[in-house]
TrEMBL record:
Pfam families: Molybdop_Fe4S4, Molybdopterin, Molydop_binding
A GO BP entry: respiratory electron transport chain
Domain 4Fe-4S Mo/W bis-MGD-type: 6-63
Protein name: Molybdopterin oxidoreductase family protein
A molecular function GO annotation: molybdopterin cofactor binding
CDD domains the record matches: MopB_CT_Fdh-Nap-like
UniProt xrefs under Gene3D superfamilies: 2.40.40.20, 3.40.50.740, ADC-like domains (2.20.25.90), Dimethylsulfoxide Reductase, domain 2 (3.40.228.10)
Length: 699
C-alpha cells in the first residue's frame, strides 16, 4: 500500500501588509493544529523569511483558540451557544426593527483593513444596499488615512508605495519617518540593509532609537508631533544649498511658491527649537538627501497618526518634489501601509465616503456605475457617512444622530480606538452589538451576538499588499463545522433583510463582481481574475485589461492629477492638539512591539508570542526614572486627561527624556488607549495616537 503525503499549500500570512508568502503543510493526525508553517522561498516580497508572528500563525487554527459556534447574550447577561438559524433571525430582526424605528443611518457597520478585498467590497455593498445606511467606516481610518489623503492631494492617486519594495536598495538616500520595520515588518528590513550595502544612506526619524534607527546612518530624534516643522526645515536647507531641482519643479509640479514661502520661515535654528533636532543633524540630512541623485521618503504611523497628519505627510512630499525625487525611477514618496489588506481594504467601499475602485460616493458618475453593477437605482445609494471615531463616538447616543446597532467585522475597538474607555462605554449603550470574528475579542465579549467566521487559512480571498500587489491567499484547511464565512454571513443577513441586490458567498464570484465594480476607477482590478492570480506572484493595480501587465511603478510619465503635475501642499507647522503643561508635563507616544499584533486579539492567544511579549510597559529615560525614583520593572501610572493606565517601567536611554512610550496591544489596566487623545486631523479624520500630554506617577 502506498500513502501519499498531501501537498503543502502556498498561501500568505494572516497578519501585516507584507503578506509574506508561506507554505502550510499538513501535520500528523491528532496534532493540535491541522497544518504547520513552512518556508516558501519563491515569493519575491519575503523570499522565505517570516517574523515570529508568521512562524507561529498556525496556532490561530487551534480549536481552543478560535470560536466554534455562534453565541448570544442571555437575559442573565451571559453569552451562550446558539444555532445559526437562531442568531441570524435575531440579528436580522433586530437590525430591521431599529431601521424601521430610527432610520437606516441608525444602523452602523465597522470594518477592517484585515478583510480580504472580497469581504471589504461586500461589506460596503451590504451597508449601502442591504441596510441602506450611510453609517459605515473602518479601522483603516486609524491607520494610514492621513498618508492616503496627502497622496491623493499631491499625486491625484493613493497607492501606498508607487514602486515595489525591491526598488529600495537602488535608491541613494532614503528617509524613513516614524516607521519601525525592524519590529513591524522584519522581512522587509533586508531591503534597507541592501540599500546601505549598495552605498546608499539611510536616515531614520523617530523619537526613539528603535531597532530600525540603530541600523541608520543618521538618526534624527524629534519631539513627537514635530515632523511637519522638521520637513519644512529640511526644505529650507535644500533651498539654501541650491539642491532644489528647478527643472523638475517647473515641468512636473504646481504650487512650489507657497511651499517655498513656508519653508523660508523655518530656518534651522527655529526648527531645532521646535523639534529638538540639532542644526548640525538637520544640515547633514539635507545635504545627503539634496545631493543624492535618487531618493525616497517613506512614512509610517509616526508622522501620520497626528491631528495634522495630512499636512505633515504633505510637507514630506513637498521635500521629495522640490528635490526632484518623485515620478522617476528609484525615487519617490511612499507610505508603509500596515494591515494585511490595508491597501485593498481602502479601495473597495468600506470607507464612509467611498464606492469600489476608489470612487467617491458623492460623484454622480461613480454612483451610476456602481449602482448598475449592483442592479439598484443610484438614487437609493446613501451619501457619505461619518469617520471611524465619529461613528464610534455616536454609538448609543439619544437623539436623531445616535447609532443604535453596530455590526463589527474585523476590528477590536475596545482595545484599539482612541479614548478607549469612552468608546467602550458607548458600545455598551447600543441596543444591538453584533461582532463577526474568529476569536472572542474584547469587543466580541461585549456583543449581544457573536458570529464565528472563517479566517485566513480556512478560506480563499485576495489581498493587496503594501506595494499595491494583488495576491491570492489560498485556503489550506477545512473550517470547523460550526463556523461560516463573512461572505456567507452577509448573504444570509441580506436575504433576511429582503435586500434588493444579490449577495454571493463564493469568493471567486464576488471577486468577479468587484472587478466589474472597480473597472474604470482609480484602483482598477478589471484585468484580474483568480486564474491569473493563481499563476502569478501577484499583479500590481491598476490593471484595466486581461492583457495588461499591471503597474509596478506609478507616475513615471505623469502624475494622476488632471494636468499630470504633482501639487505642492501649502502647509505650515502647528503644535499637537495637546501640549505638555504643568499638570501633564510629558509627551506620550504609542506604537508596536515585534511579537504582538494590533489589539492583540489574535497574537495574545499564541503561547510563543505571549512568552516573547507578555504585557504592556512604559518606556522612559533613565533621567526621568531617577527623578521619579522608579526602578526598572516597577509599576508606573501614566495619567492623561482621558484616564489612567498602569504598567511596569522599562528604563532605556533610547527614548527622549521628555517622552514616554507605551505599546497598545493590551486591554485592562495597561491599555494605552485609555490615555490617547481623539483629536482628529481635519482632512483625514485620523486620531492623534502618536502624541498626547501625560504625567507619570509611582504606584
Ligand atoms: N509586530 C507588529 N507588526 C505590525 C503591527 C503590529 O501591531 N505589530 N501592525 C501593522 C500595522 S496595522 C501597522 S499600521 C504597521 C505600523 O508600523 P509602524 O508605523 O512602523 O509602527 P508604530 O510602532 O506604530 O510606529 C512607528 C514609530 O513611530 C515612532 N513615533 C512615535 N511618535 C512619532 C512622531 O511624532 N514622529 C515620528 N517621526 N515618529 C514617531 C514610534 O516611536 C515608532 O517607533 O505595522 C504593521 N505591522
Ligand atoms: N494607541 C494606539 N492605538 C492604535 C494604533 C497606535 O499606533 N497606537 N494604531 C492603530 C492602527 S494603525 C490600527 S490598524 C488599529 C488596529 O486595531 P484593530 O482594528 O482592533 O485591529 P486588530 O487587532 O487587527 O483587530 C482585528 C479583529 O478582527 C478579527 N479579524 C481578523 N481578520 C478577520 C476577518 O477576516 N473577518 C472577521 N470577521 N474578523 C477578522 C481579529 O481576530 C481581531 O479580533 O489600531 C489603531 N490603534
Ligand atoms: S512580517 Fe508581516 S506578513 Fe510577514 S510574517 Fe511577519 S506578520 Fe506575517
Ligand atoms: Mo495600522
Amino acid at each position: 500500500m502506498t500513502t501519499t503525503t498531501p501537498a503543502a499549500t502556498a498561501t500568505h500570512c494572516p497578519y501585516c501588509s507584507l503578506q509574506c508568502g508561506m507554505l502550510l503543510a499538513p501535520t500528523a493526525i491528532g496534532s493540535a493544529v491541522p497544518v504547520q508553517v513552512r518556508e516558501r522561498a519563491d515569493f519575491p516580497v519575503n523570499r522565505g523569511a517570516l517574523c515570529g508572528k508568521g512562524q507561529n500563525a498556525a496556532a490561530l487554527l487551534a480549536p481552543g483558540v478560535r470560536l466554534s459556534t455562534p453565541l448570544v447574550r442571555t437575559g442573565g447577561g451571559e453569552l451562550r451557544a446558539a444555532t445559526w438559524a437562531e442568531v441570524l433571525d435575531r440579528v436580522a430582526a433586530g437590525l430591521a426593527a431599529i431601521r424601521a424605528e430610527h432610520g437606516a443611518d441608525a444602523v452602523g457597520v465597522f470594518g477592517g483593513g484585515g478583510l480580504t478585498n472580497e469581504k471589504a467590497y461586500q461589506l460596503g455593498k451590504f451597508a449601502r444596499v442591504a441596510l441602506g445606511t450611510a453609517t459605515i467606516d473602518y479601522n483603516g481610518r486609524f491607520c494610514m488615512s492621513s498618508a492616503a489623503a496627502a497622496g491623493r492631494l499631491a499625486f491625484g492617486l493613493d497607492r501606498g508605495l508607487p514602486f515595489p519594495l525591491a526598488d529600495i536598495p537602488h535608491t541613494e538616500c532614503l528617509i524613513l519617518v516614524g516607521a519601525n520595520p525592524a519590529e513591524t515588518m522584519p522581512p522587509a528590513l533586508r531591503y534597507f540593509r541592501e540599500l546601505r550595502e549598495n552605498g546608499g544612506t539611510l536616515i531614520v526619524v523617530d523619537p526613539r532609537r528603535t531597532r530600525t534607527a540603530e541600523q541608520a546612518d543618521l538618526h534624527l530624534q524629534p519631539v513627537p508631533g514635530t515632523d511637519l516643522a522638521l520637513a519644512l526645515g529640511l526644505l529650507h536647507l535644500l533651498i539654501a544649498d541650491q539642491t532644489v531641482d528647478a527643472d523638475f519643479v517647473a515641468e512636473r509640479t504646481t504650487g512650489f511658491e507657497s511651499a517655498r514661502a513656508a519653508a523660508m520661515a523655518h530656518w534651522p535654528e527655529r526648527v531645532e527649537s521646535v523639534t529638538g533636532v540639532p542644526v548640525s543633524q538637520l544640515r547633514e540630512a539635507a545635504r545627503h538627501f539634496g545631493r543624492a541623485r535618487t531618493g525616497m521618503v517613506l512614512t509610517a504611523r509616526g508622522p501620520e497618526q497626528q491631528s495634522k497628519g495630512t499636512d505633515t505627510v504633505g510637507a514630506w512630499i513637498n521635500l521629495c518634489l522640490a528635490a526632484g525625487k518623485a515620478g522617476r525611477p528609484y525615487s519617490g514618496y511612499g507610505c508603509l501601509t500596515g494591515q494585511g489588506n490595508g491597501q485593498g481594504g481602502r479601495e473597495h467601499g468600506q470607507k464612509a465616503d467611498q464606492l469600489p475602485g476608489y470612487r467617491s460616493i458623492e460623484d454622480p458618475a461613480a454612483r451610476a456605475h456602481v449602482a448598475a453593477v449592483w442592479g439598484v437605482d443610484p438614487d437609493t445609494l446613501p451619501r457619505s457617512g461619518r469617520s471611524a471615531y465619529e461613528l464610534l463616538d455616536s454609538l448609543g447616543r439619544p437623539g436623531p444622530d445616535g447609532v443604535r446597532a453596530l455590526l463589527v467585522m474585523g476590528s477590536n475597538p475596545v482595545v484599539s480606538a482612541p479614548r478607549a474607555a469612552h468608546i467602550t462605554a458607548r458600545l455598551r449603550e447600543l441596543e444591538l452589538l453584533v461582532v463577526c470574528d474568529a476569536v472572542l475579542s474584547e469587543t466580541a465579549q461585549l456583543a449581544d451576538v457573536v458570529l464565528p467566521s472563517t479566517q485566513w487559512a480556512e478560506e480563499t480571498g485576495t489581498m493587496t499588499n503594501l506595494e499595491g500587489r494583488v495576491i491570492l491567499r489560498r485556503q489550506a484547511v477545512a473550517p470547523p463545522p460550526g463556523v461560516r464565512s463573512d461572505l456567507w454571513i452577509m448573504r444570509a443577513l441580506a436575504e433576511r433583510l429582503d435586500s434588493q441586490a444579490e449577495f454571493d458567498d463564493d469568493p471567486e464570484t464576488v471577486f468577479a463582481e468587484l472587478r466589474r465594480a472597480s473597472a474604470g476607477g482609480q484602483a482598477d482590478y478589471a484585468g484580474l481574475d483568480y486564474q491569473r492570480l493563481r499563476a502569478e506572484d501577484g499583479v500590481f493595480w491598476p490593471c484595466p485589461a486581461e492583457d495588461h501587465p499591471g503597474t509596478p511603478r506609478l507616475f513615471l510619465d505623469r502624475f494622476a492629477t488632471p494636468d499630470g503635475r504633482a501639487r505642492f501642499a501649502p502647509v505650515t507647522h502647528r503644535p499637537a492638539a495637546e501640549q505638555p503643561d504643568q499638570e501633564y508635563p510629558l509627551y506620550l507616544t504609542t506604537g508596536r512591539v515585534l511579537a504582538q499584533y494590533q489589539s492583540g486579539a489574535q497574537t495574545r492567544r499564541v503561547a510563543e508570542l505571549t512568552a516573547a511579549a507578555p504585557g504592556p510597559f512604559v518606556e522612559l529615560h533613565p533621567r526621568l526614572a531617577a527623578r521619579l525614583e522608579v526602578t526598572d520593572g516597577e509599576p508606573l501610572a501614566v495619567v492623561s486627561r482621558r484616564g489612567r493606565a498602569v504598567a511596569p517601567a522599562r528604563i532605556t536611554d533610547a527614548i527622549r527624556p521628555d517622552t514616554v512610550f507605551m505599546p497598545f496591544h493590551w486591554s485592562g489596566a495597561g491599555r494605552a488607549n485609555t490615555l490617547t487623545n481623539p483629536a482628529l486631523d481635519p482632512t483625514s479624520k485620523m486620531p492623534e495616537f502618536k502624541v498626547c500630554a501625560v504625567r507619570v506617577e509611582k504606584v
